[in-house]
């Protein structure tokens, strides 16, 4: 690429979210918004006929366009959007391992990812050792000659821990192991891990990337080599993203940067307000100085994110009552949409753990996870204030 072309190449995240890395052709009559190509297959007779072939292969125009945009946002060579966040995670694990291999994973993971590693992959001859990400030497000690992947989540769901990935990246590089990271909770606006030595970035695009709680999707970003192997797995296992969902995801990405900015602002304001209220044992938010990873998150994250967790005095009974009393915030298990959602991990993402296991992870009964939306903050505070008052023991 010439110097002049290089200089004019956009690299602001808001710009990339709207346009992707390419400026597109400028012919009169070209639609400003790409149409949905709701076609399972394309006229194609022989290899010279091009890359558009069959939508399960991941080469529908909407799938390709959104993949290129996600790669631009993450700063990776390539990316692919798939049918769900779990499809993305599962295809990465299957692409990078075979029977007899071993995975090292953070002990603090989304419940279904943990179940996939713990209950499902062993049936395919792939074992996982879970490591407490807080221990310095834990990763090194658990390494085996057959370790192929180290998998982490940043920030973690739902305790919002943000540990330093750089020593893990160094270890992975030294040992020739692929480091994969689920950054669903941060989005590339708040944290782009690829330039910190993380090889593969995974998202539940159902959350912030889509941003409107109206689609289920996942994404994998990394080198061309890894992404094409993930695409091969997707062709075989079949979790391709439907063209309409790919189009919706692309539309969500157009406003990702402005939404995240508002999520970040609202979450900090709500967390600060919550930390001044009675009836709450703990407010967990990386932007608060009381958070154990406040310094690390401040160094590596651009914004502290839209997720806030609280532990209510009075345990599960109070939490049930509190959820019941909310009038604006909605009880629902997902996150990352424009509307504020609340959930209790003991009923949802971490229902597979025992109470004692949840306690050990810092998720006692009374723990409520809040996905702070983009509503007017005063309205949110009014709603939380009345629900806290009405649910107090
Ligand atoms: C951190 C994280 N990763 C992955 C997933 C799975 O995503 P999906 O529901 O899109 O399959 C979730 C879902 O909540 C999640 O929170």
Q: What name is given to the CATH topology of the largest domain?
A: Aspartate Aminotransferase, domain 2
**Into how many domains do the coordinates divide?**
2
- Cα-to-Cα separation, first versus last residue: 66 Å
- What kind of sheet is the major sheet? 7 strands, mixed
Query: What share of the residues lie within helices?
Result: 25-40%
Strand content: 5-15%
Distinct ligands, ions and cofactors found in the model: pyridoxal-5'-phosphate
Strand order of the largest sheet: 1-7-6-5-4-2-3
- Using the 3D structure, state the CATH architecture of the largest domain: 3-Layer(aba) Sandwich
β-strand number: 12
Estimated structural class: alpha/beta
Mean pLDDT: 95
The CATH homologous superfamily name of the largest domain equals Type I PLP-dependent aspartate aminotransferase-like (Major domain)
- Basic shape: globular
Highest-level CATH class of the largest domain: Alpha Beta
**Helix-strand string:** HHHEHEHEHEHEHEEHHHEHEHEEHEH
Break the fold down into its secondary structure elements and pairings:
Blueprint lengths: L2 H6 L4 H7 L41 H14 L3 E5 L2 H12 L5 E5 L4 H10 L6 E5 L6 H5 L4 E7 L12 H10 L2 E5 L4 H4 L9 E5 L13 E5 L1 H14 L5 H12 L1 H19 L5 E5 L9 H7 L6 E6 L2 H11 L4 E2 L9 E3 L11 H7 L5 E5 L5 H15 L2
Parallel strand pairs: 2-3, 2-4, 4-5, 5-6, 10-11
Antiparallel strand pairs: 1-7, 6-7, 8-9, 9-12, 11-12
The chain binds pyridoxal-5'-phosphate (PLP).
């Amino acid at each position: 690429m010439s110097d002049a072309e290089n200089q004019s190449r956009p690299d602001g995240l808001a710009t990339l979210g709207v346009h992707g890395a390419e400026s597109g052709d400028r012919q009169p009559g070209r639609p400003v918004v790409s149409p949905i190509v709701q076609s399972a297959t394309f006229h194609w007779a022989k290899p010279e006929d091009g890359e558009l072939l069959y939508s399960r292969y991941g080469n529908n125009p909407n799938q390709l366009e959104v993949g290129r945009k996600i790669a631009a946002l993450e700063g990776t060579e390539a990316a692919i959007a798939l049918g769900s966040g779990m499809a993305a995670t599962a295809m990465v694990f299957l692409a990078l391992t075979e029977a007899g291999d071993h995975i090292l994973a953070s002990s603090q993971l989304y419940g279904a990812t943990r179940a996939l590693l713990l209950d499902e992959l062993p049936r395919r001859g792939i074992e996982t050792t879970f490591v407490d990400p807080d221990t310095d030497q834990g990763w090194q000690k658990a390494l085996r000659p057959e370790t192929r992947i180290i998998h982490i989540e940043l920030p973690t769901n739902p305790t919002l821990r943000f540990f330093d990935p750089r020593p893990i990246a160094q270890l992975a590089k030294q040992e020739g192991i692929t480091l994969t990271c689920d950054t669903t909770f941060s989005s590339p606006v708040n944290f782009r891990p690829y330039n910190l030595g993380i090889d593969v970035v995974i998202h539940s695009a159902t959350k912030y990337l889509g941003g409107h709680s109206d689609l289920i999707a996942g994404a994998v970003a990394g080198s061309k080599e890894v992404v094409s192997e993930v695409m091969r797995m997707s062709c075989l296992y079949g979790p391709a993203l439907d063209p309409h969902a790919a189009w919706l995801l692309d539309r969500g990405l157009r406003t990702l940067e402005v939404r995240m900015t508002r999520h970040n602002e609202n979450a900090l304001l709500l967390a600060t307000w919550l930390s001044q209220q009675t009836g709450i044992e703990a407010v967990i938010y990386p932007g608060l100085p009381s958070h154990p990873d406040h310094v690390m998150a401040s160094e590596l994250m651009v914004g502290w994110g839209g997720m806030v967790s609280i532990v209510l005095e009075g345990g599960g009974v109070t939490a049930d009552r509190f959820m019941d009393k909310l009038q604006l915030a909605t009880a629902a298990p997902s996150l990352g949409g424009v509307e504020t959602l609340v959930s209790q991990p003991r009923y949802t993402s971490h229902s597979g753990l025992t109470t004692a296991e949840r306690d050990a992870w810092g998720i006692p009964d009374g723990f409520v996870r809040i996905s702070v939306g983009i509503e007017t903050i005063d309205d949110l505070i009014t709603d939380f204030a009345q629900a806290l008052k009405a649910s107090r023991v």
